[in-house]
Amino acid sequence: MLALTRRLVTIILMLPFLLLGLAAVAHGGQPGDVIQLSPIEIKAPASPTSQPFVPAAYRETPLPSYPTAAREQGLEGVVVLGVLVGVNGRAVEIAVRTSSGARTLDDAAVDAVTRWRFAPAREGRKAVESWVEVPLKFALRGK
Q1: What pTM does this model have?
Q2: Which region holds residue 37: left if phi is over 0, alpha if psi is between -120 and 50, else beta?
Q3: What is the CA radius of gyration of the chain?
Q4: Do 40 and 60 lie in a common domain?
Q5: Per residue in 105-128, pLDDT tens?
Q6: Are residues 69 and 124 in the same domain?
Q7: Do 81 and 127 have their domain in common?
Q8: Residue 20 has pLDDT above 60, yes or no
Q9: Count of CA atoms in the C-beta half-sphere (13 A) of 3
Q10: How far apart are CA 103 and CA 105, in angstroms?
Q11: Longest distance between any two alpha carbons in the chain, whole Å
Q12: Residue 112 is part of which domain span?
């Protein structure tokens, strides 16, 4: 199952490159006109497992407070955080992957997620660390 999933991921990742090549030929381009790109290398883990993988999920997610300064300035935005979820369901590491454009909103999002609880990812019955992306949208009412 895991091997099949990895093959599908490889195919999906290579699909845009294949389509680019087909598009160039379909539009009358010559084979020499197609820019050859290096393939994306996806390495399998050192010890493949046949256990089913269940991704991490939200459990307790208290919303962040809207920073007063950001509210007064009319700041809004979406913050996307990369969160390493530990085997205990707590955030081990948090990184801003996409900023809202306002540092105060980004900081409020990070502060909130440090208090969140997740259901950790599992390989079979064993809890494992995993990365998840968490989007948080800050929006003012009446705008």
Answers
A1: 0.64
A2: beta
A3: 21
A4: no
A5: 999 999 999 999 999 999 999 999
A6: yes
A7: yes
A8: no
A9: 4
A10: 5
A11: 59
A12: 53-138
- 99, 136 contact by CB (below 8 A): no
Q: Which long-range contacts (CB under 8 A, 24 or more apart) does 8-15 make?
A: 9/42, 10/42, 13/40, 13/42, 14/39, 14/40
The H-assigned helical ranges of the chain are 2-26, 68-73, 103-113
- Do 20 and 43 sit in the same domain of this protein? yes
- pLDDT at residue 13 in the model: 47
> Same domain, yes or no, for 72 and 91?
yes
pLDDT recorded at residue 101: 96
Contact 60, 116 (CB under 8 A): yes
Spatial separation of the C-alpha atoms in residues 31 and 22, rounded to whole Å:
10
Q: Are strands 57-60 and 53-54 parallel, antiparallel or unpaired?
A: unpaired
Backbone angles phi, psi at 7, to 5 degrees: -65, -40
Q: Are residues 42 and 86 in the same domain?
A: no
What is the residue whose two structure tokens read 């290096």?
Answer: 38
Our count of domains for the chain comes to 2
Specify the residue for token string 């440090």.
114
Give the DSSP H/E element, type plus range, for residue 104: helix 103-113
C-alpha dist (Å) from residue 28 to 19, 22, 36: 14, 10, 17
